Amino acid sequence: MTELLVVDDEENIRALIRKYAEFSGYGVTEAADGMQAVELCRSRGFDLIIMDIMMPELDGFSACREIRRITDTPILMLSARGEEYDKINAFNLGIDDYVVKPFSPKELMLRVEAILKRTRASGGDYIKKEVFEQEGLKIDFTARIVYIDGKQADMSPKEYDLLFYLVRNRNIALTRDKLITEVWGYDFDGDDRTLDTHIKLLRRSLGGYSKFITTLRGVGYRFEAR
């Protein structure tokens, strides 16, 4: 399902956009300010972002600058300000469209559809970048690269597979059987010691950030992070 990130400090605006977006068949994730939007973009990917400008914590312009360091996801900017300067500033940041409040929800959905069609028709070059980042640990799922305090980690293919699965399912208790089935496959003929060995190797590779991997006695493991 196409997933939209709707960022606006006004709850009624977010609710209105959600109503029309879900009616149009889109999934919707909400953020109440720019800071929350940036954190969401660091932990998962979206197909399009609808971003208000005037917000607490981190305004839309500043949030767009940070998001552009993470992903090239299309951004549609919302604003009560229709001055030429604001539009130029927004487009210079690399946004895809600019809509002035008050707006027609139907027109907004048409603009969303147009951006998505244009993105997908550009030869398939656009790939939704998926990145997780917390403290000094950065995981670029799209490029299949892990950074430890800015340095690229050297891990085995199975360590990558195990880490990616743990992070994508963070804060969930994962049984040994579940991990073995999902990471090694249904035809795996080893035993639990193989999983424990790879967890040990993964923790060594992560250094101080091995603290995110919690052992659940008698159950399995859990990756604890925001």
The CATH architecture of the largest domain would be 3-Layer(aba) Sandwich
Outline: elongated
CATH level 3 topology of the largest domain: Rossmann fold
Q: In order across it, which strands form the biggest sheet?
A: 2-1-3-4-5
**Percentage beta strand:** 15-25%
Would you write up a description of this structure?
The protein is an alpha/beta fold and 226 residues long. It has 2 domains: 3-120, Response regulator (Rossmann fold); 134-223, Arc Repressor Mutant, subunit A (Orthogonal Bundle). The protein is 41% helix and 21% strand. It contains 8 helices and 12 strands. The chain has helices at residues 11-23, 34-43, 60-68, 84-92, 105-120, 157-168, 176-184, 192-206, and strands at 3-7, 27-31, 48-52, 75-79, 97-100, 131-134, 137-140, 145-148, 151-152, 174-175, 213-216, 220-223. It has a 5-stranded parallel beta sheet, sandwiched between helices. The chain starts with a strand and ends with a strand. The mean pLDDT is 87.
